[in-house]
What we know:
It catalyses: (2S,6S)-2,6-diaminopimelate = meso-2,6-diaminopimelate. Belongs to the diaminopimelate epimerase family. Keywords: Amino-acid biosynthesis, Isomerase, Lysine biosynthesis. One of its GO terms (cellular component) is chloroplast. It comes from Urochloa decumbens. By secondary structure, the protein is an alpha+beta fold. It is 24% helix and 32% strand. The protein contains eight helices and 18 strands. It has helices at residues 3-10, 12-18, 38-47, 53-66, 97-104, 143-156, 249-257, 295-307, and strands at residues 69-77, 80-86, 114-120, 127-133, 163-164, 167-169, 172-178, 184-187, 213-217, 220-228, 232-236, 267-275, 278-285, 289-291, 314-319, 322-328, 335-339, 342-350. It has an 18-stranded mixed β-sheet that branches. Residues 1-51 have low confidence and may be disordered. The structure holds ligand LBFN2T5F. Ligand LBFN2T5F is lined by residues 80, 133, 139, 142-145, 231, 267, 285-288, 291, 294-297.
Amino acid sequence: MSPAATAAATSFAAAAATAAPTAPSRGCVRLPFRGGPGAPRRAVASMAVSTPRSAAAASFLERRESERALHFVKYQGLGNDFIMVDNRDSSEPKVTPEEAAKLCDRNFGIGADGVIFVMPGTNGADYTMRIFNSDGSEPEMCGNGVRCFARFIAELENLQGTHSFTIHTGAGLFIPEIQSDGQVKVDMGEPILSGPDIPTKLLATKNKAVVQAELEVEGLTWHVTCVSMGNPHCVTFGAKDLKVDDLKLSEIGPKFEHHQMFPARTNTEFVQVLSRSHLKMRVWERGAGATLACGTGACAVVVAAVLEGGAERKCVVDLPGGPLEIEWREDDNHVYMTGPAEAVFYGSVVH
Ligand SMILES: N[C@@H](CCC[C@H](N)C(=O)O)C(=O)O
């Protein structure tokens, strides 16, 4: 992130409430550190031909602020990006699933893989996290999202240094911890391996788990291992000599997502084993398509690799957006994920 971006991100809580728009687009999205001197000046010059500049700017601002303005901060974790909404004053999300889908559109909206709401805690947790995918569906959990959530909380509450929070989600309680280097480590809990609980209709092959089960997709037999990290994942190490870069993800991904064996649809990870502690994956996400990273997916991949006997319990998982450190501990059966999360820009949108 550039110094200007860092400054903007660091002070976003105050600035989001007071900043004047500089580059109105659909819904008045403000990009405080991208507005170079060129573009705004040209826009002002053409407006001045028919309207006094200050009057036009003021009425535009007043109109925007008097309508339902939604303030947001855009975050990303390894390129898996989210519109974060401070929803601490209400247990109802400030946008509907349909509005979320529009906001996530990369051409007609802000652009994101999902919208995440920071809500008051329930069941004794510090906070509640809800998320809508970019298609408006609501998943139970999001690994990269929970890291972004932790960093957003630290900014909202003006916390410095190391901190941990309890976060209630549709998949239960999660505990992210902001570390001294800014990375976020999350206790992702125990993986769920029983087929009906994932859910998948594929039958158990090893104890009660679905490991290297055969799945017919597009006339090919794939070997898949199914894992829930609160949300469903189908992991395949594909054929021998599989190069994940060669996959036509947008063609094959939807066939897995909507396969009749997955009654709640599924996220799918295509994995290449680089070594017993280094894996490489691409993901097709349920409700979001191809994304640059998936935290729950990387956790599911390590669990699947261990179950298949192909990897150690502690691995680096390379995703298109960068690496995550994942450990499936033997002593408590919990999966731990460590990776980055950062603010990209803030803005407001009339919805
Ligand atoms: N990218 C996320 C997962 C988001 C939810 C997923 N699309 C689903 O529907 O389950 C992650 O980092 O875990």
